[in-house]
Amino acid sequence: MSLNIWILSDGKAGHLSQTRGLATALANRLKGHVFELDLSGKGFRAKWSAVWRACFRLRDANGGQAGTPTFIIAAGHGMHVPLLLSGVLLRKAKTVLCMKPSFPMSWFDFCVVPRHDLTPALLANSPAHIIPTLGALHGVHPSPESPKTHTLILIGGPSKEYGWNEKQVVKQLKAVSSRQSEAKFLLTTSRRTPAGFIDALKIACPAIDVVPVEETPRGWVAEKLAGATAVWVTRDSVSMIYESLGSGAPVGLLNMPLRSLDGKKKSRVARGIEMLEQEGWVTPFDLWEQSGILKSKGALVEVDRVAELIASTQCSQ
């Protein structure tokens, strides 16, 4: 029997990478169909209304356009309440949240949580509904059949955890492109990348081909990761770091200024990246500058394991 999988989308690329990756992995295992309910740009009431209408149509029309879901997947703080509401309205559907929620985790059927967001005690003895992962989920897998033709560079921008220093980023990219002068470099930006960066980069690093994020269609990054011999990512781009690791290519991290936390503990993002560095999954720029080597432990793909665990609960019923 074919199953239906819903995604509640806030439109954010990092969240969509997680939810689409997991939904696709589940659909492949359960012969399911994926339906995406776009809640991006909507206020609190509009989100409630959109979820209510979608669920009400299903109950009244005996299936409706989307089909009664077996799993409903979401990521992002703005999706917590819509996910809970859909779980109440569609009681047979299992809710899957790809993050540590603001609400008790027991309110959701599954919480897929990066290990750096869990306490050591909870990480060591997680209940069945909490699935710890090595970072954010994604749908990228190694592509050994694809020709490896370029070094891919993924640039983010200022965030809650990191500031922005254009000269610092350009200086690092100049060092990378100069040391590997025989390589082809392909760079794209994000919607957070400050205006003026591309112009400064083109002057300092003319050998780097630039494709602004506005010119990249859906799936562009995954396609270019498949053909990458190596990847460089700015530290703020958490989802891009984990997607890059999924390709199996060695990954280097470009330094960015860490914002002051006023004496508070390191942010969850900084802790997660620090774990990757300590375990040898990624190479920080300073270490690469000394050795000239980008290390690789192979591909880091957690989505298949998570999908298998979640799918097994359906198969056991």
Give an overview of the whole structure.
By secondary structure, this protein is α/β, with parallel strands linked by helices. The protein has helices spanning 13-30, 44-61, 80-89, 120-124, 166-179, 197-204, 220-226, 238-246, 268-278, 285-291, 303-315; strands at residues 4-9, 33-38, 69-74, 94-97, 110-114, 130-133, 150-154, 185-188, 208-211, 228-234, 251-254, 283-284. It has two domains: 4-138 and 302-315, 3-Layer(aba) Sandwich (Rossmann fold); 150-291, Rossmann fold (3-Layer(aba) Sandwich). Helix 1 (13-30) packs across helix 11, helix 2 packs parallel to helix 3 and helix 5 runs parallel beside helix 6. The two termini are 13 Å apart.
Shape: globular
Q: Biggest sheet: strands side by side, in what order?
A: 2-1-3-4-5-6
Q: Number of helical runs?
A: 11
The main sheet comes to: 6 strands, parallel
How many domains make up the coordinates? 2
Radius of gyration: 21 Å
Outline:
Helix content is 38%, strand content 18%. The protein is α/β, with parallel strands linked by helices. The protein is globular and about 60 Å long.
List keywords for this structure.
alpha/beta, 12 strands, 18% strand, 2 domains, Rossmann fold, 317 residues, 11 helices, single chain, 6-stranded parallel beta sheet
Please outline the helices and strands.
Elements: E1 4-9, H1 13-30, E2 33-38, H2 44-61, E3 69-74, H3 80-89, E4 94-97, E5 110-114, H4 120-124, E6 130-133, E7 150-154, H5 166-179, E8 185-188, H6 197-204, E9 208-211, H7 220-226, E10 228-234, H8 238-246, E11 251-254, H9 268-278, E12 283-284, H10 285-291, H11 303-315
Parallel strand pairs: 1-2, 1-3, 3-4, 4-5, 5-6, 7-8, 7-10, 8-9, 10-11, 11-12
